[in-house]
Every structure is written in structure tokens, then in C-alpha cells.
Amino acid sequence: MATARSGNGGVQSLQRAFELLERLADTGGEASLSELAASSGLPMPTIHRLIRTLVTLGYVRQNTNRRYALGARLIRLGENASLQFGTWARPLLAELVDEVGETANLAVLERDEVVYVAQVATQRHSMRMFTEVGRRLLPHGTGVGKAMLATLDPADARALLERTGMPAYTEHTHTDVDAFLRHLADITEQGYALDSSEQELGVRCIAVAVPDAPTPTAVSVSGPEGRLTDEAVRGIAPAVQRTAQRLSEQLATRQPVE
User: Fold this and answer.
1) Domain with CATH 3.30.450.40 in the chain
2) Superfamily holding 76-254
């Protein structure tokens, strides 16, 4: 039996299946068949056939309310992809650590959460790590999260914050959406985000979004407030910005050529 192909040479049914997964993600992870039909424009029989296949494979699940949600099997794929993404970035993070003497991190935005995918620890100081690879946090309370949210359209950033809420990790965490959106505009103008005891008391983080990344991505330097003084931040921020730009350039060379 011949397999239908799309105009760009891809397999049409496969493209449609991934489109449905993306649309489920865009709705917050759950939708009915009729909602998927309305948003995708695909015929209901086609959607039903694709969803049934995705349910069988474990990439979609049907809830008791008969609505469909993203399946647990996607978690393993996403985590492995994120970790591989962080592997090639480690040499640049190591150079950043050598330059500034503090721990460097790389994080991505995955399903409304910040996921740390790579870290290189400083050897100059005896200190515990403030976060670890694989940790997931809400973006409003982290330097990397704020740097990534500042790159989004304000309406998209607001929608994400309304989905996740803005719980206070410490007394310094931003918890008001409107004030936080104004804060994101300041981050865009400044060129980097600063987390000062917003995720963990006594910890500071300088973060910069990686330009043109395929998914929102940010690099950061973190350390205790006693070392990351305002003067230190002004000296470290340009180094983090240079690393973000170099990461962007490396990503560009890894993109598939049409």
C-alpha cells in the first residue's frame, strides 16, 4: 500500500500526528476530538484514526471525561532530547566557568517549566550546587526562566503565567502578573535577567536567553550573593551574553539543511 506524502516530501500521516501532539500541547495538554478538529482543520475520521494510534502507542491518553491528553511516553523522549541537547553545550559552559569562576547552567523551557539540561560546576570554591541537571521549576522564579519569558510575546508570557500560577518560592519571588510583565520588559532592555534570592535565599543568578534557539533556552551563572555582588554581576553579565551568542552560533551549524 502506498504511503501518502506531503508536498515537502514528508509522510503526511506522520506530520499530521505530530501536529495533533503540538495542538494538544498548545491547549495546555488536553482537548476533545471536536476541539482538535476545529483547531487543525482535519476531518474527524482522520483525527480519530490518528488519535487512536497515538493512544495505542502511549503518546496520548484518554481521560475519564473522554478528553485526550499528552501521554507519559513523551516524557522519556523529551528528557532524553533535553539531556543530549545539553551534552554538546558543556565545553562552552566549561569555558564560561573558567572565565568567571562560578557555576554555569543551561536550561530549556519545556511544557511551561524550566528544565536544567547541563551544568558545569566551579572548582575555585567549595560550595554546594544550587540546582542540578534534570530539575524542573516554574519559570517566574528563576533567572533562566525570566530570561526565556522575556523573549516571548507578552500575550504568550501572560498566558503561560496564568496556566502555571506564580507561587512564591521566597519572599522575593515575583507573584503579580502585571508587575512581572513590566519586569520582563526591563530584562529585555537590560540584556540579561537577574535572580536575587527569588528561587533560593542567598543565591544569585545571571541569565541570558540563547538567540534563535529552536526552543526557548537560556544560559546562566549562579553563586552565593556574597560573591555575586552588583559589581561582580556587571563584570559577569557580558561573559554570559557572549556564551549565549556562541551557543546560538553552534546551534545554527547543527540545524538540518533543506
Assistant:
1) 76-254
2) GAF domain (3.30.450.40)
3-state secondary structure the chain: CCCCECCCCCEHHHHHHHHHHHHHHHCCCEECHHHHHHHHCCCHHHHHHHHHHHHHHCCEEECCCCCEEECCHHHHHHHHHHHHHHHCCHHHHHHHHHHHCCEEEEEEEECCEEEEEEEECCCCCCCCCCCCCCCEECHHHCHHHHHHHCCCCHHHHHHHHHHHCCCCCCCCCCCCHHHHHHHHHHHHHHCCEEEECCCCCCEEEEEEECCCCCCCEEEEEEEECCCCCHHHHHHHHHHHHHHHHHHHHHHHHHCCCC
Give CATH for domain 12-71: 1.10.10.10
> What is d(CA 78, CA 105) in angstroms, rounded to the nearest whole number?
18
Cα–chain center distance at 137: 10
Q: Which of 16, 18, 64, 9 is nearest to 43 (CA)?
A: 16
List, for residues 223-255, the tens digit of each pLDDT value.
Answer: 999 899 999 999 999 999 999 999 998 887 764
pTM of the model: 0.69
